[in-house]
Amino acid sequence: MNTTELNQTIQDKTRSLGHSLRSRIHPMSSMAKLWVKRDDELSFGVSGTKLRKIAALVHHWRENGVKKVIALGGDRSNHLVSCVQIFHEIGLDYEVWCQESHHQSMRGNQAYLRLLARPGQSRSLSREDWPHAQREAEAYAQSQADKTVVMAEGACQEEALWGGMSLGMDLLLNQAQEAMEFDHIFMDAGTGIGAAGMKAYLDAVGFKGVLHVVQMAPCDIQTWASKGSRLLGLETSATCELRIHQPATARSFGASNTKVMEEIVRFAREDGLLLDPIYTAKLFLTVRQLLPNILSPGQIGAVIHSGGGLAIEGFWEQLGRHL
């Protein structure tokens, strides 16, 4: 399969929402030699990487006659807020199963999910029951009259890898349009599916730079990337080096602190970027600290801004102290 055929296959697998998933790149004001890919502009309410993954899953569901989806996640999850918007858009029946929140006040994604989900289509599970949620959801799906599937937490499933591949394809199309070659690519990861799809695509086309992944939660990106290569029918050698980094601060998933809030303010005022405290603020902070030791003279890098700016709404109390 040549690159043209590969790109066409990826487009076919991710065009289920009616448009091509393309976003622009531009140089950053605050960090020389670094470009930002604006996947945050793909959708107002759905982060770019999640939009790509869900588009790939919608294609798969349609091909297999799925009528209903059970989506799992925390009630403050960007993932569930993204899913419900798209389920309404395409008219797909759904239920969201949420882990019970320990937060008393309803704000941020918790409030958005309450706004979006119809009464009777959201179920809360206790923290004690949550480890069994996947198994219980699969049993419940089997009992439904219409074909029903379970969407794993964070869309952590093989078919979603096509979404990450579309991001790799799009970035290299940006690169060609700007007549440049990136030496380093930086992105964040939760489940790691988006990063794994990106890695599989970069290996497939022989990209020889470095993919840096700031890992917000434990995930096995290389194993998933190998699955992505098999989806492509390829047994490629790893031309693209993968480097995993921990966030520079607030390393526990979902954690934030003063440094994160200061970084949100910094990038808003210097680059005009709206970052969220859970993923993108930690990504950009970590990249800023890594750059002096990574970029050699003449090299350039790209950082993926996946979006999620709506999540700021749940952190105004902390963020307000820095304004």
TrEMBL record:
Keyword Transmembrane included in the entry's annotation: no
Organism: Pseudobacteriovorax antillogorgiicola
The protein's required cofactors: pyridoxal 5'-phosphate
Alphabetized InterPro entries for the sequence: ACCD_DCysDesulf, TrpB-like_PALP, TrpB-like_PALP_sf
Entry protein name: D-cysteine desulfhydrase
Transmembrane stretches, start-end: none
Domain Tryptophan synthase beta chain-like PALP per the UniProt entry, residue ranges: 32-306
Catalytic residues (positions): S77
Family note: Belongs to the ACC deaminase/D-cysteine desulfhydrase family.
Sorted UniProt keywords: Pyridoxal phosphate
A Pfam family that the UniProt record links to this protein: PALP
Single annotated GO MF: D-cysteine desulfhydrase activity
Modified residues (N6-(pyridoxal phosphate)lysine): K50
Keyword set includes Transmembrane: no
Domain of life: Bacteria
